[in-house]
């Protein structure tokens, strides 16, 4: 799984190098040639590293997805992740990628719409956020947890390489803008980590990021924590801008981390108070957790702000439910 995402574009990079060159240029001296050459070299080298790591030197990729229609994709491989979750990789046409903006997800349905129907006879549709980068060429990857009583997750876990799934997107969630906030708290539960992971990996890939991210990630047991290695590696790489707090409902005796549900005390301890400007709280977890912390979602709509966050004084503008 690539941790490096296209968080900044070459045009932005060169513009910022240009801006830096203007600000850094001594105003009284007239011969700017050595400085210009030096900055040009630094900018060129920076762009070379950026371009080779992201493939930005190639022409922009076409999107394999359609926001208005389901497109059928073939399952390439399934790799078990833990006791109830697996990574599913679907093939995209050559030279295409998902091009999903941050933050956004896709919705999926069975390739045969007759195969999975809800009580009203409509095809079952569920949202998923890929764990692969938006510019991943030829593939899209999902980490999906199987719920024994779940309709779609159980169906996807029954698929074998060569089987198909219909995918539609992007479904826009929160239009993430670099450095719009001083602090972003991400509250996740179980497989609700994937939309939050999309935001974190995208934001931290940019050398210009100054936003501090705090992830409060709750799970039942240590074995349930998804993407832990990736999150720990990111926190190690970005100690000033990412803090990860794992909370377990049923920890083993040797667990040294936080325990219990995320409640008012946990929020008061870790989250910037509602009086602080330029902060936001993102919530994505099981429906019960979202309702208890931030109020019930109304289908794909936000629904009213409620729960613990409302009681602590957070407003609808300061909370986003995925
Ligand atoms: C924006 C977004 C992105 C998502 N991305 C992912 C992802 O990348 N990977 C992933 O595995 N899931 C993801 N989900 C959750 C996913 O959409 C489904 O809700 C989940 O797979 C269960 O669907 P189901 O049809 O199997 O279960 P359902 O038939 O809808 O529900 C069956 C039972 O499971 C419970 N249940 C439903 N959803 C959850 C849940 N999320 N947590 C705990 N219990 C639940 C229900 O209360 C019910 O009892 C995402 C959700 C959202 C909103």
TrEMBL record:
It is a single-pass membrane protein. GO terms for molecular function: cytochrome-b5 reductase activity, acting on NADH. Its cofactor is FAD. It comes from Mycena albidolilacea. It catalyses: 2 Fe(III)-[cytochrome b5] + NADH = 2 Fe(II)-[cytochrome b5] + NAD(+) + H(+). FAD binds at residues 126-128, 143, 145, 152-153, 194. This is NADH-cytochrome b5 reductase. It comes from the Eukaryota. Belongs to the flavoprotein pyridine nucleotide cytochrome reductase family. CDD domains: cyt_b5_reduct_like. PANTHER family: NADH-CYTOCHROME B5 REDUCTASE, NADH-CYTOCHROME B5 REDUCTASE 2. One of its GO terms (cellular component) is mitochondrial outer membrane.
């Amino acid at each position: 799984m690539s941790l490096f995402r296209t968080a900044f574009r070459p045009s932005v990079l060169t513009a910022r190098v240009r801006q830096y060159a203007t600000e850094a240029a001594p105003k009284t001296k007239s011969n700017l040639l050595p400085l210009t050459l030096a900055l040009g070299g630094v900018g060129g080298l920076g762009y070379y590293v950026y371009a080779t790591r992201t493939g930005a030197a190639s022409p922009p990729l076409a999107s394999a997805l359609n926001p208005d229609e389901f497109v059928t994709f073939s399952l390439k491989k399934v790799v078990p992740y833990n006791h109830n979750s697996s990574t599913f990789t679907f093939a995209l046409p050559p030279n295409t990628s998902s091009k999903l903006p941050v933050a956004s997800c896709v919705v999926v349905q069975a390739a045969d719409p007759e195969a999975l129907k809800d009580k009203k006879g409509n095809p079952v549709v569920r949202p998923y956020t890929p764990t692969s980068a938006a510019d991943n060429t030829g593939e899209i990857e999902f980490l999906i947890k199987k719920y024994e009583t779940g309709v779609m997750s159980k169906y996807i876990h029954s698929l074998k390489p060569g089987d198909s799934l219909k995918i539609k997107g992007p479904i826009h969630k929160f239009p993430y803008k670099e450095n719009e906030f001083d602090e972003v708290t991400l509250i996740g539960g179980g497989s609700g980590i994937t939309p939050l992971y999309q935001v974190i990996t995208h934001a931290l890939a940019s050398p210009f990021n100054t936003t501090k991210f705090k992830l409060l990630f709750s799970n039942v047991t240590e074995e349930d924590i998804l993407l832990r290695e990736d999150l720990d590696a990111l926190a190690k790489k970005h100690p000033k801008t990412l803090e990860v707090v794992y909370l377990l409902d049923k920890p083993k005796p040797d667990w040294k981390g936080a325990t219990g549900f995320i409640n008012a005390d946990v929020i008061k301890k870790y989250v910037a108070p509602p009086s602080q400007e330029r902060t936001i709280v993102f919530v994505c977890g099981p429906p019960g957790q979202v309702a208890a912390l931030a109020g019930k979602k109304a289908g794909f709509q936000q629904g009213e702000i409620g729960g613990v966050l409302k009681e602590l004084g957070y407003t609808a503008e300061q909370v986003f439910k995925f």
